[in-house]
Specification:
125 residues, mainly alpha, 0% strand, globular
Amino acid sequence: IETNGNNCFASVPVLAGACLIPVGTDLGVFAMAFLLFTSLGVLATNQFHKWAHVEHPGSIVRRLQRWHLILPSDHHAIHHAAPYATHYCITTGWLNPVLRVVDFHRRMERFVLVLTGVEPRREEP
């Protein structure tokens, strides 16, 4: 409950809304499937992140990590090393290279600064 509870609550309104989508068309089926699989990803995100921190995960988890279907420990370890400024994706890590290339996180920091006046936290050297 502690690991996955918040994500379950966040997924409930999305899944409830998905129940209202008429599935009589291809677009409806696509929308329903998209929301279902996105919700499943959200539901599993914290668990995958937790397993990336486990020293000796089970054999199935290790295999999924090795295949990069869930977040591998070595990939996530980069996030926990100085300068602590990359590899924020905690489900599979697939988006980390894309987000780095488009400088997503720095752009978001600037956006938050302009919007709120709050400076991003800086790590001590």
